[in-house]
Amino acid sequence: MLEFLLPALAAGIGIAILAGPLGSFVVWRKMAYFGDTLSHASLLGIALGFLFDINLNLALIICCMVLAVILVSLQKQKYVATDTLLGILAHSALSLGLVAVSFLDHVRIDLMSYLFGDLLAVTTADLMWIYGGGILVLGALIALWRPLLSMTINEDMAQVEGVNVDLMRLALMLMVGMVIAVAMKFVGALIITSLLIIPAATARRFSHSPEMMACMASVIGIIAVFIGLAMSWHYDTPAGPSVVVAAAAMFMLSQLRRAER
């Protein structure tokens, strides 16, 4: 049992550590729909990976990065409202991915595993992608923490202080895209954003500083991974959704406690 669950546990912990601080920025900046757009587009990356016969993890990363750049560029033009733009790109990319998959007659693709994830099918190579990408993202996040936080508090004030707001916005979207790319295969395109949002929203109730919220969000995510995998093992439920259900349960408990106070 330990040999079977250990890779899944290691993958879940790595994803939770990444999702904690980035999820905090997603909550602070109200970027949940940005994450949904990138996660929906990740299916297009899977289709392109099979089509051009390249590593799926690399295809996912490239696709999410390209879409993140397109999102930031189009948002800056302000020709279309942000929510409209995100809706167009999210559903267009998802539909294009589904259409591309239908043309791959020589490849059998289990769409359910990509839509809802398969955390128990993690390999050593997958762990290398998760932790390799995680080290890059965490390193960039630590280096850019102050300007990102300044931009989140007040963009105009950040510009006065010399922060390149456009560059920081792009960097944040690229980091979110990287996390979605490395986690999508194991948690699923439809629910990966929930792992960014729910632990951070739960941690917000008990945090007194941005740094504390980011750390607590990672811890809550790790606890959700343990509970979700235990549910999956004992009750034969899908691992990725079980992790999200565990995180949602902790969020509801935090709200009840808040109400009692």
Can you give a write-up of this model?
With 261 residues, this protein is mostly helical. It has a single domain (2-190), classed as ABC transporter involved in vitamin B12 uptake, BtuC, CATH 1.10.3470.10. The protein has 11 helices and no strands. The longest helix has 30 residues, at 124-153.
Q: What is the fold's blueprint, element by element?
A:
Layout (H helix, E strand, L loop, with lengths): L1 H27 L3 H20 L4 H22 L4 H21 L8 H6 L7 H30 L1 H6 L4 H23 L4 H13 L5 H26 L3 H22 L1
Helix pairs in contact: 1-6, 1-8, 1-9, 1-10, 2-3, 2-4, 2-8, 2-9, 3-8, 6-8, 9-10, 9-11, 10-11
Given the structure, what is the number of helices? Answer: 11
CATH top level is Mainly Alpha
Shape: globular
Instruction: Please outline the major beta sheet.
Output: none
Mean pLDDT: 86
Counting DSSP E segments of at least 2 residues, the number of strands comes to 0
Gross CATH architecture: Orthogonal Bundle
- The share of residues in extended strands comes to under 5%
Global structural class: mainly alpha
Helical content band: over 70%
CATH topology: ABC transporter involved in vitamin B12 uptake, BtuC
Total domain modules: 1
Radius of gyration: 18 Å
Spatial gap, N to C terminus: 41 Å
- Provide the low-confidence segments as ranges: none
GO cellular component, one term: ATP-binding cassette (ABC) transporter complex
Membrane topology: Multi-pass membrane protein
Function: Involved in the high-affinity zinc uptake transport system.
Keywords: Cell inner membrane, Cell membrane, Ion transport, Membrane, Transmembrane, Transmembrane helix, Transport, Zinc, Zinc transport
